[in-house]
Amino acid sequence: MLAAAVRLFNTRGYDATSMFDVAESLGITKSTLYHHVSGKEQLLTMAVDRALDGLFEAAEAALREESAATVRLKDLIRRSVLVLADRLEFVTLLLRVRGNTAAEQHALSRRREFDRIVTDLVKQAQAEGGVRADVDPATAARLLFGMVNSLIEWYRPDRGAPESIADTVADLAFDGLRHRA
């Protein structure tokens, strides 16, 4: 049920999708759908929480590591790409919310909390000397996740193993494109 709603939200847009549309796509009645959820906003909340929960799990795993902040940051980037690959439609929907409903405002609040975690990790990496200190930590965090989030535009499972793509994104984020002699 949730996957069907997310597909419709991503295809038609949240506002343009009705509960009737979701029920019809599942071959059930609206009353059957309402037996399981209170409405479209609950479906949206469940969907964006699935994406955000994955990102917070990735952050918790990276932060638990007993290693330098730069290593943990690179690991968080890698883990986030894996979350995106695993929950592509959910992350796509998350990145499209704009704050027009209570569910969207809640999602944006959680995204800001995640951004703070990344920014703090960048600050730690800078303090340890593992990341350039001349870059604003919040800007660096946004740019790193701009690269990760761009995958929603082009990533498809047939374009390569998620682990390989995660390694490439993390390596490019920390080593750049320049050939090293």
UniProtKB/TrEMBL annotation:
Domain HTH tetR-type: start-end pairs: 1-55
Domain of life where this protein originates: Bacteria
Keywords: DNA-binding, Transcription, Transcription regulation
Record-linked Pfam families: TetR_C_24, TetR_N
DNA-binding segment(s): 18-37
The keyword DNA-binding is assigned to this record: yes
Protein name listed in UniProt: TetR family transcriptional regulator
